[in-house]
Amino acid sequence: MHLPSRDLVYILLLPGTYHTSLGATTHQTITLMDNSPQTSYYPYLVLATSLFMMVAGTGSVYLLVAALKPIALEFDWPRSVPSLAYSLQYLGGGIGGIMMGYWLDRVGMAKPASVGACMIGLGGCLTYYVDAAWQLYAIYGLMMGLAGRASLFSPLMVNITYWFERKRGMAVGIVGSGQAIAGAMWPAIFQYGIATVGWRETAFRYGVFVLVTMLPLALVFTRERPEPSTAAAASQQAEHAELLPPARLTALLCIAIVGCCVAMSLPLAHLMSHASDVGYTPIDGARLLSVMLICAAMSSLFLVGTLSVRLSPLGGLLVFSTTQAVTLGMFPLVDGLTGLYIVAMAFGFGYGGVLPSYPIIIREYVRSGSAGTRTGLVVFFGTIGMAIGSSLGGVSFDLTGSYAPAFYAGVACNAANLVIIGYLLRVSRQRLAHASA
Known about the structure:
This protein has three domains: 34 residues, no CATH class; 181 residues, MFS general substrate transporter like domains (Growth Hormone, Chain: A, Up-down Bundle); 205 residues, Growth Hormone, Chain: A (Up-down Bundle). The protein is mainly α.
């Protein structure tokens, strides 16, 4: 059998199913030569690209964290000005995530990824020219938030679920770990840059880095995502029948994620200050936070996939959320540095698996055509919880001189999350038992 050279090049470089000039027989042979999405290299290329984009794009958050004090000093602004820009980036990312998720459902990941890379990169470059507060708000709220970070967490996490069937939890955990990896990596890089060349030049160089790396890598997403296998589709259809109607399930997850994100945000925002309040140096506080983020990355990398398979996605989330609640309540009770490290590590292992579990749950129990939109909506409510928790810690300290009331309030919010997840898990098991009876 002879293949035209043009068709041979296409088959070698772009594995897939192709119609050639030799007709249907050759078409079928070529299809058999192609590996399935589960065994070919391309899903892993998508996975590696997604992880890189999550790490690189999340740098926009830590750029402003590192530059907050220098920006405020240069313009003689109160720190509330750059802090508001930081909050607007999260708020814009939450709102934009719903739109990006809808866009993902309709056209795939390539266009959202390209827009996000352009907006984060251009936003970093334009930060170099900021000379008024409204410019900072527009760059971080609209460019780097609404159109930039919005393309990262929800779309990337949902998109990767289409490329993996048997190892879906593992893939989502790896992509989700990018946020924790970014938190452990970027602050030191930005601090060095600011000390060496200043915050403006550091922001500009970060923007150029994003443009020359993330924008070309968005081409990886141009291939059409694979359709689920017949067995996977049948299994997913059966699971859909076991849980609640999609609208009700989405509403419950929106409420649940607020509770766990209130608890999650308290140590993230206030652990360094809490360590200082109990007598340790800022360096000790920074190390505690770094260790916690490293443990969160390890949890997302290695535990999310394992528990989602062995316990179900809902069961895994219950374990992670319980660990987070218990360890959050231990922070006010421990004042030794070794004890704080142990609690911080345990908290990291808990919270690192919480957020990646939600896209897995939605992808498992909601039809795939709306998974992006629903994940974006749920994550938006998560950003509300993060904002509430961060503010709650500041209010608690201002009123009582301690973070303990805020930590205990976070435990209560996390308990509400556990009630909802426990209910969903019970419904799932009851319906599964009924179906097998």
